[in-house]
Structures
1.
Amino acid sequence: MHEMSVALAVVDQVAEAAARAGDVTAVRSVRLQVGELAGVVPDALAFSFELACAGTLLEGAELITEAVPGRARCTPCAHEWAVGMPPRLTCPECGGARTDLLTGRELQILDVHWEDGGPPHAPTREPISEEC
Ligand SMILES: [Zn+2]
């Protein structure tokens, strides 16, 4: 299940950052940016996240997902459009198939709130790396 490997990767990255930070006793929430085309179902991810957190520093942490709509730009005519779901990757203006995906593949941790109630931490803005 894709969402489970994403959830495990998120928990790993947050737990690692918390270990580096020192006195973190628990994690309250994790905010995750999820592109529309990242292939992640938010409900399934929330469920997997809860399971992945069990028995870790993140137990009981809230997962806040921020959806990023997919947008593409046509290379020949520079028209931009929302790709939607299922994604439309040919240009609605000229029918061209040479397009750049501008947004929609995001899958990254935006910030994490530790138990100490301090300001948001940004342990990493790197894409989630999955082992699969
Ligand atoms: Zn075009």
2.
Amino acid sequence: MTTPAGDSLPIASNDDVVRVRQLVRTAAASAGMSLVDQTKIVTAASELARNTFVHGGGGTARVESVVNARGRAGVRLVFTDEGGGIPDVAQALTEGWTSGGGLGLGLPGARRLADEFELETEVGKGTTVTVTKWIR
Ligand SMILES: Nc1ncnc2c1ncn2[C@@H]1O[C@H](COP(=O)(O)OP(=O)(O)OP(=O)(O)O)[C@@H](O)[C@H]1O
Ligand SMILES: [Mg+2]
């Protein structure tokens, strides 16, 4: 079950990336996440927000409170853009691969830091990355 209550933020500048980080930190803390897990999801959020801005040409971040079928609570983040998309997802998820300028660590790092990771992309249409971290 997903609680529809969530916040959406635009990602169109570096300041927006900072705001996304802050919102995710607040949401994770108020969900009762440990400090270590808060840092993990904030780091993932930071990388994904930066990708939305830099590679996706900007977009939005949604921060949702979720509860699974067993009543376990978590925080889910959805990053959406309508940029050029990712032609080769396996390549993009490879540590050290960058289409230019970066370290190629953001996407694989975000996947590792989250409990669940989903990437939907279509060339010429855009990209949506969804990550979830459960309270343990
Ligand atoms: N939202 C997106 N839209 C289009 N391409 C993307 C998007 N996110 C990631 N990519 C592609 O996937 C590649 C790998 O992303 P990743 O975050 O791992 O590395 P990076 O952004 O290049 O460098 P780093 O994040 O380490 O500074 C990017 O270089 C880019 O080509
Ligand atoms: Mg990146």
